[in-house]
């Protein structure tokens, strides 16, 4: 079936994708994480490879197998994901940030399991680096795509992220409702760029990823690349 989608639209183009959640250790047995199965990021990396791209996926912890024909780099924390992306970014033409990166991590991670003693416990958190924003800053020439998961005000917030991070495209989805985002097999996306807004109807994440890659390829080549 994959051959049908072997469009060649991204022949020889180098695509770097992040996927899955990140996991920020509190102690050796506990951590902070985001809700993300990794399905969307893995599907985007696989769709890029199908379209002929040389695809690399930097993935946080998931239970999914490495996608076919995609070089997959496994990481755990946001800082590890940041380092892995920065090590690959100079060799990429397109970056797609699908990962649900933890915005904060514990200031320190306890070397031993925290025992249940205190009645109240406060976690001190510090901001993680913004991988996507750093990619756009370090490689202003790259075609940079972000995802935005929002519970409300989707288009305006997506447009705000497009501008704030200096992106070329934001794929936005409403989360917290049936058939969209998180662990679901289907998703709906709103594509927001400087030329306007395109709605991609609800579809299986595999199908949606192929359509997204097609939309990205068209825009990438329209820039004369
Ligand atoms: N992202 C990233 N590094 C981070 C946080 C987010 O690369 N530390 C990327 C995500 O992979 C996604 C995009 O930024 O492509 C938007 O993530 P989102 O969580 O929606 O936005 P934030 O900028 O983190 O803002 P907020 O969570 O406050 O909405
Ligand atoms: Ca965030």
UniProtKB/TrEMBL annotation:
Domain DNA/pantothenate metabolism flavoprotein C-terminal: 10-218
An example Gene Ontology biological process: pantothenate catabolic process
Known pathway: Cofactor biosynthesis; coenzyme A biosynthesis; CoA from (R)-pantothenate: step 2/5; Cofactor biosynthesis; coenzyme A biosynthesis; CoA from (R)-pantothenate: step 3/5
Cofactor names: Mg(2+); FMN
Highest taxon listed in the record's lineage: Bacteria
Reactions the enzyme catalyzes: (R)-4'-phosphopantothenate + L-cysteine + CTP = N-[(R)-4-phosphopantothenoyl]-L-cysteine + CMP + diphosphate + H(+); N-[(R)-4-phosphopantothenoyl]-L-cysteine + H(+) = (R)-4'-phosphopantetheine + CO2
GO molecular function: FMN binding; metal ion binding; phosphopantothenate--cysteine ligase activity; phosphopantothenoylcysteine decarboxylase activity
Residues that hold CTP according to the record: 103, 113, 129-132, 147, 161, 165
Function: Catalyzes two steps in the biosynthesis of coenzyme A. In the first step cysteine is conjugated to 4'-phosphopantothenate to form 4-phosphopantothenoylcysteine, in the latter compound is decarboxylated to form 4'-phosphopantotheine. Catalyzes two sequential steps in the biosynthesis of coenzyme A. In the first step cysteine is conjugated to 4'-phosphopantothenate to form 4-phosphopantothenoylcysteine. In the second step the latter compound is decarboxylated to form 4'-phosphopantotheine.
Protein family membership: In the N-terminal section; belongs to the HFCD (homo-oligomeric flavin containing Cys decarboxylase) superfamily. In the C-terminal section; belongs to the PPC synthetase family.
Protein name stated in the entry: Coenzyme A biosynthesis bifunctional protein CoaBC
Biological source species: Sulfurifustis variabilis
């Amino acid at each position: 079936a994959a051959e049908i989608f072997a469009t060649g639209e991204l022949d020889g183009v180098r695509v770097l994708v992040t996927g899955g959640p990140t996991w920020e250790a509190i102690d050796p047995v506990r951590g902070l994480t985001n809700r993300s199965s990794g399905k969307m990021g893995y599907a985007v990396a696989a769709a890029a490879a199908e379209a002929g791209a040389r695809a690399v996926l930097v993935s946080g912890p998931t239970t999914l197998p490495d996608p076919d024909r995609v070089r997959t780099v496994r990481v755990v924390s946001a800082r590890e994901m940041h380092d892995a992306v920065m090590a690959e970014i100079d060799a990429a033409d397109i970056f797609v940030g699908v990962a649900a990166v933890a915005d904060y991590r514990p200031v320190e991670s306890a070397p031993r399991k925290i025992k249940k003693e205190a009645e109240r416990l406060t976690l001190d958190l510090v901001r993680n680096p913004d991988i996507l924003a750093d990619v756009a800053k370090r490689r202003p020439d790259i075609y940079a795509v972000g995802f935005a998961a929002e519970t409300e005000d989707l288009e305006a917030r997506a447009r705000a992220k497009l501008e704030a991070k200096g992106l070329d495209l934001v794929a936005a989805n409403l989360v917290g409702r049936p058939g969209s985002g998180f662990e679901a097999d289907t998703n709906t996306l709103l594509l927001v760029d400087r030329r306007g807004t395109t709605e991609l109807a609800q579809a299986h994440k595999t199908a949606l990823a192929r359509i997204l890659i097609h939309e990205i390829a068209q825009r990438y080549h329209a820039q004369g690349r």
